[in-house]
Amino acid sequence: MSTPIVFLDCETTGLHADRRPWEIAMIRREGDRQRSLTIYVSDVDLSSAELIGLRVGRFHDRHPMYRKDVGGAFDIDTESDDTVDPWAADDQLGVDHCLYPEQHAAVTVERWTRGAHIVGAVPNFDTECLAAMLRRHGLCPAWHHHLIDVEALAVGYLHGTRQVGSVPLPWKSDAVSTFLGVRPPSEDERHTAMGDARWAMRLYDHITGGAQ
Length: 212
Fold this sequence. Notes:
It is built from 8 helices and 6 strands; from the N terminus they run E-E-E-H-H-H-E-H-E-H-E-H-H-H. The chain is an alpha/beta fold. The chain has a domain at about 5-150: 2-Layer Sandwich (Nucleotidyltransferase, domain 5). It has a 6-stranded mixed β-sheet, sandwiched between helices.
């Protein structure tokens, strides 16, 4: 029986300890089945957010509850009080994209990651944030405690196969990926949760052949 793996990435409100996830991407692979999901957290707490962190992930351009472009949930030209309409925001999303309040997001993450090995780039950054979210809603993280960091995996592979003489610190994700011949994300994909989760999946599959 194959062990499930989940390729995971989050966009968060900053780098600080109390950061909150606002975009969560998961690709769960189990046997020959694979499914992907992106969750936007509709009621994300921004009270301790770092503006620079929000800008990295293009929060105000991409979060369906905060976008100000035509067709977004905000319509600042109306005579209303600019209350966000989650139904209008949800209508902007495609297949395999969900807009959930944090409690619903926590339940979904717990179910999708239960019993799985988490694969990502510096995955503890994401799992620490998600574990705190689950705990806030009375849930216990149930993913496997051995996290798989594709950057460490890639550097070890490069050294072991002697494809490069040395990968100097600090490791740069783009450089490591290029050394391996794995395509980094495009500019549109970069710093989106699903774009980075797919990047982690490409690296993992290139090195391991998709081992479970």
